[in-house]
Design goal:
Layout lengths: L1 E8 L8 H18 L2 E8 L3 E8 L2 H11 L5 E4 L11
Antiparallel strand pairs: 1-3, 1-4, 2-3
Helix pairs in contact: 1-2
């Protein structure tokens, strides 16, 4: 599977409560169970958007999850490489 960064425009998501985020995670997990072909690794939450890290067979699977979950996939980027401080060693 390929890895993707999904940028989701979600106004005021940074103000979500822990309960709100739990409900969102449940919704996403339910959509993953329905759609298959995707694996959610984790997400970063900012004031007005999330950056979600997913593994998927292809971009179409990401769009199918977005439709099933009701969460927008505003922009999708395929990860082509990963670097970190250890890359410099």
């Amino acid at each position: 599977m390929k890895r993707y960064v999904i940028e989701r425009d979600l106004p005021k998501i940074g103000q979500a409560t822990k309960g709100d985020l739990k409900d969102a995670a449940k919704t996403s997990n339910k959509a993953i169970a329905e759609v298959g072909k995707v694996k959610w690794e984790h997400s970063y939450v900012t004031a007005d958007r999330t950056f979600c890290i997913y593994q998927a067979e292809n971009e179409a699977a990401i769009h199918a999850h977005a439709k099933a979950s009701g969460f927008p996939a505003s922009r999708i980027y395929e990860v082509v490489n990963i670097i970190s401080p250890d890359t410099a060693k």
